[in-house]
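Whether sequence alone determines local backbone shape is best considered at the level of individual chains. Part of our work consisted of pairing the sequence of a single chain with a tokenised description of its backbone. This step matters because it turns folding into a mapping between discrete strings. For completeness, the protein is quoted in full, as a sequence line and a line of structure tokens:

_____
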Amino acid sequence: MFKLLKTLVLVGFVAACSPKLQPSPLTSQEVLQLVDDQTYQFNMEYVQPMGGRQRLITGSYTFRVNKDQLEADLPYIGRAFQAPIGSGEGGMKFTSKEFTYSSTIGKGNRREISIQPKDQQDITGINLIIFENGNADLRINSVNRQPISYTGNISRLPQPK
């Protein structure tokens, strides 16, 4: 009995101390307006490789959406089927200026976004689910790598200096 109680206390302590996803400081109206205007930034907090466990990532990793351009600077953890030749960079790093962007309203007024880059040979599709509170889930499908998911929140694009 004491061993069970000890285990339950330990599990409760670990759950209480684990990091929680912070909601966006934006209001739900601001989040939806940014998404409708296609001018926002996804800030990654967690990464979950296919078949792996979710991991907290420190650092500044982003996925930026603008009407004219997509820009990804995200880590990659998972299985690659083919390594890029002549590139010392890892991760999901790309810029796309030619893509299709479609947005639908899903359950609970969330936005379900599908992006198909036409000028990236390795990226086959990007799916982004954005909730009213600013939290978001991003999934990137690739030809040469296993799919990967990211969890984070939405913010405004940084102002140019």
